[in-house]
UniProtKB/TrEMBL annotation:
PANTHER family: ALPHA-AMYLASE FAMILY MEMBER, NEUTRAL AND BASIC AMINO ACID TRANSPORT PROTEIN RBAT. This is Alpha-glucosidase. It comes from the Bacteria. Keywords: Glycosidase, Hydrolase. GO terms for molecular function: alpha-amylase activity. InterPro entries: GH (IPR017853), GH13_cat_dom (IPR006047), Glyco_hydro_b (IPR013780), O16G_dom_2 (IPR045857). Belongs to the glycosyl hydrolase 13 family.
């Protein structure tokens, strides 16, 4: 059997640079690349194989770097290209690859391409963007398409008499992937970064690049996979790198199109079915639904089955756009540590590449802001007025933002119990969660039974047990409202995972096919040597047993 690609046995770690670590050299309250370098030993100790680095490119920071004004330079707040080269080298020295964020559905309105496009419709760069005339006889937008950040997805340029498309903020004009010259620019930029030594790309909202505006198809458009295959041929083919495509529209049925082994596209895809399952049909994330375990499990089970024999899953619960997982899916009060271990257990033992989001390894929680001015997210402010106009009170809106808003994941990393959680010597760009005096890296690392030790063990198991990377997957008790259970199988071995995802004890009859006796790989309550017959599980108890 051929050896697996390195990224199938590796564990990824996402860094949101603005909130990770502010170096002592400037203390401006914004995390930076030298700060990341200073913490690489923390990640090496965890056993991390690669870092997904949210954007550090030059940017006016309307969307905290997801609005890029120069793809070949670094934002001064984060450092310099020399700093970036040093990060790549220092990470490699510790066996860690750097995976950069590829944001090419859109760029910044301050990018030289857009400046040239505004200056003249005759400029080649004008066709790097998506333009439409107003509706006949009016100056109204060409259609009623809305931005993901609230308001119309079209902005009028009086000097040109035309609108440009932006599926996000007006400062993030969509790029026109139908233009081969634009695609060539992007591929050249990607190769430039590969030549600097990066280990791959995470591709932001990549499902949107194939849009057919005329047909009203914005996601997974007719040319999407042709573009991804062309990209692969021009940049990825022959390179030992990893690629992860973000898609809010992908389903278990279409996932294989992105990452099938014979497709020549991507390594894997980020899907969000388990996230969207908790959103209100009308009000979206701003009015979260009660957690429903069967629906949550179905999303993961469906994807495990869909990519069982081809393709590859990405495994995550938290990222820079999502609430903290222990607050969203666990118990961030009395059972914070135990529920954090449970969530890690059920995620890391599935088939795929797991991703740890900064702070997850110490069980960081949502912040629960009380005033609108405490928030920083452009998406939140873009939706505020519209949600209020639908009849919500300010208190309801803030409650929804505290449950599902993106700022939850963006409060500073909690390193110590000292001032500003050891994140900065200055004033943090966003408030530190007040619980940093109890929840921080120093405190957790000093506990041999803490979360860091637990995650270190999970990462090591993935590197050493073929059943985790190559084993079959069989779900159990899909409709059970408390139990998350599945079995993995490989080379005559069975790995059984059973977890009580609730704050109440539960009795559970172990089904045939899940029953197992052997070595207890992980537990977060009391170790067990077997899962047989009728068992009693304590609140938030999780156990994984590998058959002898």
């Amino acid at each position: 059997m051929d050896p697996l690609p390195w990224w199938k046995t590796a564990t990824g770690y996402q860094i949101y640079p603005r909130s990770f670590c502010d170096s002592d050299s400037d203390g401006d309250g914004i995390g930076d690349i030298p700060g990341i370098i200073s913490k690489l030993d923390h990640l090496a100790d965890l056993g991390i194989g690669f870092i997904w680095l949210s954007p550090v490119y030059a940017s006016p920071m309307i969307d905290n770097g997801y609005d890029i004004s120069d793809y070949r330079d670094i934002a001064p707040a984060f450092g310099t290209l020399d700093d970036m080269d040093r990060l790549i080298a220092e990470a490699k020295a510790r066996g860690i690859e750097i995976v950069m964020d590829l944001v090419v559905n859109h760029c910044s309105s301050e990018h030289p391409w857009f400046n040239a496009a505004l200056a003249s419709p005759e400029a080649p760069e004008h066709d790097y963007f998506v333009w439409r005339e107003p509706r006949a006889g009016t100056t109204a937008p060409p259609n009623d398409l809305l931005s993901a950040f609230g308001g119309p997805a079209w902005t009028y340029v009086p000097s040109l008499g035309k609108y440009y498309l932006h599926q996000f903020a007006s400062a993030q004009p969509d790029l026109n992937w139908e233009n081969p010259a634009l695609r060539a620019e992007i591929y050249a930029m990607m190769n430039w970064w590969f030549d600097r030594g990066i280990g791959g790309f995470r591709m932001d909202v990549i499902d949107l690049i194939g849009k057919d505006v005329g047909a009203g198809i914005m996601a997974e458009g007719p040319n999407l996979h042709a573009y991804l295959q062309e990209m692969h041929g021009e940049t990825l083919a022959g390179r030992d790198v990893v690629t992860v495509g973000e898609s809010w529209s992908v389903t278990p049925q279409t996932g294989i199109l992105y990452c099938g082994e014979d497709r020549g596209e991507l390594s894997m895809v980020f899907q969000f079915e388990h996230v969207k399952a908790g959103w209100h049909e009308t009000f979206g994330k701003w009015k979260p639904l009660p957690f429903d375990l069967p629906t949550f499990k179905k999303a993961f089970f469906d994807w495990q089955i869909a990519l069982a024999d081809d393709g590859w899953n990405s495994l995550f619960l938290t990222n820079h756009d999502l609430p903290r997982q222990v607050s969203k899916y666990g118990d961030d009060g009395e059972h914070r540590v135990r529920s954090a271990k449970l969530l890690a257990t059920v995620l890391h033992f599935m088939k795929g590449t797991p991703f740890i989001y900064q702070g997850e390894e110490i069980g960081m929680t949502n912040s629960r802001f009380e005033r609108l001015e405490q928030f920083r997210d452009v998406e939140l402010f873009g939706h505020h007025e519209a949600v209020m106009a639908q009849g919500h009170s300010l208190e309801e809106f803030i409650s929804g933002a505290n449950a599902n808003g993106r700022d939850n994941a963006r409060t500073p990393m909690q390193w110590t119990a000292g001032e500003n959680a050891g994140f900065t010597s200055g004033t943090p760009w966003i408030e530190v969660n007040p619980n940093y005096t109890e929840i921080n890296v120093d405190a957790d690392r000093s506990d041999p039974d803490g979360l860091i030790a637990f995650y270190r063990h999970l990462v090591h198991l993935r590197q050493t047990l073929p059943i985790l990377t190559q084993g079959t997957f069989r779900p159990f008790s899909a409709e059970h409202e408390q139990i998350f259970a599945y079995a993995r199988g490989f080379d005559g071995q069975r790995l059984s995972v059973v977890a009580n995802v609730s704050s109440e004890p539960v009795s559970y009859d172990i089904p045939e096919g899940l029953a197992c006796r052997g070595a207890c790989l992980v537990h977060n309550f009391e170790p067990r040597a077997e899962l047989t017959g009728r068992i009693e599980l304590a609140p938030w108890e999780a156990v994984a047993i590998l058959s002898e």
